[in-house]
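Data availability (excerpt). All sequences and predicted token strings are deposited with the supplementary files. A representative entry, SDR family NAD(P)-dependent oxidoreductase, is shown inline so that the format can be inspected without opening the archive.
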Amino acid sequence: MNTFTICITGSTDGIGLAAAKRFAAEGHRVIVHGRDDFRISDACAAIVQSTGVEAVGFVEADFTDLDAVCSMGRELAERFPGLDLLINNAAVYMPMRTLVPEGYETTFCVNYLAPVLLTSVVKPVLIANGGSVLNVSSMDHHSAVFDSGNMQGERSYSGYEAYARSKLFNIMFTIDSASGDGPVRPIRSNSFDPGVIATKLLHAGWALAGDDVSVGGDDVFETVMVAIAKHNHNGEYFENARAAICSSVVRDPVARQELRELTGEMLSRFEV
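Structure token line:
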């Protein structure tokens, strides 16, 4: 069995923490990410209590702060040179439109810009180790449209549409990363939907019960084992650990190019 050194963003609760526990229990080296010391400490303790195994380390960054995300990426690359799997899991659902200090809409920043930036910063280490990226998306991406004039809900906003858009963008980014479209240096990348899981995000957006978070954690694990460790998939979208069909918008090269160029402008100051 391949043993991974994994950073799971948003791994202090929900699916991220459940996945961290499963990977640790299976002998993988887990790096916890959270937005503050208290959540990180509680998560690390929960992993030990559940598995008897300690996380190999942790990193801290609030994904509403892109400078913090960039610093986190550099810390990851420096402290964990063996990093070979990044799971971009951290996400929010915002019923009302709010802006981060830099002026971006919160859902767009946390769910899309932050993982793009983080991936870009750690990509050299991942490539050197023959590693890969797994982006947590959602089947809700099927309902989203690509409209460059309303990417951040500038004209009209709903929490659901903002969330679905961000998950659409995640898969578009996945395909670009996998293929090396544009100036992007390719890295093996896949995305997946973890199912209807009882997380805070699900309760906030849909008021549904959902499956226990352990089911979501298991789905992350199985997707990695099937898509990455066993079959070397690249540029695929998964549901229930099986390759699935994604939205036609995702497969539109013109839309992906426009998103890629707009994203590049937004992140240009980081020079990554």
